[in-house]
Design goal:
The protein is about 25% helix and about 25% strand. The chain is built from 10 helices and 16 strands. InterPro entries: G_CP_dom, GTP-bd, GTP-bd_ribosome_bgen_YqeH, Mito_lipid_metab_GTPase, NOA1/YqeH-like_C, P-loop_NTPase. This is Ribosome biogenesis GTPase YqeH. It comes from Paenibacillus shirakamiensis.
């Protein structure tokens, strides 16, 4: 019987970048010996994501993400920071400037195809600039794009060509913002290497830095997605992830409410109109989430009796695996023009200008905030 060949030292998965190993099936980078002859060489996790659309619980610890990010500040690099317009406040990397130092940053705002066609793009650009600035990020430029619809990539490629010089290009972003999809497009334009990164809807697809050589000797470096537990998309089951993540243009749902009424977003969250004059509220959530209206005084009882059934998805079983809901109350002042944002789930625009008191209930840890209206 022929002895299996050992894995060469330092050999990495071409899909997610993790160092390959053949000893432990439960650890990142596992590859069966017989799979070493495949082209490209990818770990078992990437193989199953790519061929069977299976999720995996294997991720890299947060400290390791930050260690990898901190290396960028010591390099002469062009940084592309990809964010998700649907979850902008949840996917922007806080403190990124501290990691990248003086290196220029292009902010690529992905998934713009989700916004309504009547969107005022000048207003959205100004909004993005202001929000990024308030979070301490200095941007060389902002590019709107859609990896799914192949929109905005000519503009992004022009920006890379103009500012790259002899620098490597580092691509950074939170999980599930479309980072690997965007890099695959860059590879096709800048490299004749026959390689594609593993892409899926599951968080943490890229596990280590992936260096893709360019034709001029420089590299595109894909970094692991930062995992933020404050995003709803990091908490739900794989089947529910496809429900809360919008994949079609958002259809604003307008509800005229009196004080003392509640909106349930399936069993994912709840919005209470506690005090204020009759007014409208516009919800921007995935079309797969059903909105149910009821009286505030009945809301607790309704959830206790019908969560996971009438108020679904998620199922009752999936709900039991999520953290208990936490209540967030806000007093909205007159003429505020604001959204109530729930990271990974969407946002609710406050349309009235007379002020109100509202509350939002979502699983503990999910980021909830009031921000200037996006639309």
């Amino acid at each position: 019987m022929t002895e299996a060949s050992p894995i060469p030292d330092g050999m990495r998965c071409s899909g997610c970048g993790i160092q390959l190993q053949a000893e432990d099936t439960s650890k990142p980078g596992y590859i069966p010996q017989q799979a070493l002859d495949r082209e490209p060489v990818i770990c078992q996790r990437c193989f199953r994501i790519k061929n069977y659309n299976e999720s995996s619980s294997v991720t890299v610890e947060q400290d390791e993400f930050l260690r990898l990010l901190s290396q960028i500040g010591d390099k002469d690099a062009l940084v592309i920071h990809i964010v998700d317009i649907f979850d902008f406040d949840g996917s922007l990397i806080g403190g990124l400037q501290r990691f990248v130092g003086s290196n220029p940053v292009i902010l690529a705002v992905n998934k713009i195809d989700l916004l309504p066609k009547v969107t005022n793009w000048n207003k959205v650009r100004n909004w993005v600039q202001k929000q990024a600035k308030e979070m301490g990020l200095k941007t060389l430029d902002i590019v709107f794009c859609s990896a799914k619809q192949n929109q905005g990539f000519d503009r992004l490629l022009d920006m890379v060509q103009e500012h790259r010089g002899d620098r490597d290009v580092y691509v950074v972003g939170a999980t599930n913002v479309g980072k690997s999809t965007l890099i695959n497009r860059l590879i096709r334009d800048y490299s004749d290497l026959e390689q594609e990164l593993t892409t899926s809807r599951y968080p943490g697809t890229t596990l280590d830095m992936v260096n893709i050589p360019l034709d001029d000797g420089q590299y595109i470096i894909d970094t692991p997605g930062i995992v933020y537990p404050s995003r709803y998309s990091e908490l739900v089951s794989p089947s529910d992830l496809g429900i809360i993540m919008a994949d079609k243009p958002l259809k604003p749902a307008v509800n005229q409410l009196n004080a003392g009424q509640t909106l349930f977003f399936g069993g994912f969250g709840r919005f209470d109109f506690i005090q204020g004059e009759h007014q409208s509220f516009t919800s921007y959530v995935s079309s797969r989430i059903k909105i149910h209206r009821t009286k505030l005084e009945r809301a607790d009882e309704l959830f206790a009796q019908h969560a996971g059934e009438m108020l679904s998805p998620p199922s009752r079983e999936a709900l039991e695996k999520l953290p208990a809901w936490t209540r967030h109350e806000f007093r909205i002042t007159k003429n505020s023009n604001v959204d109530v944002f729930m990271s990974g789930l969407g946002w609710i625009k406050i349309n009235g200008d007379t002020g109100c008191v509202i509350a939002v209930h979502v699983p503990k840890g999910v980021k909830v905030l009031v921000r200037p209206s996006l639309i």
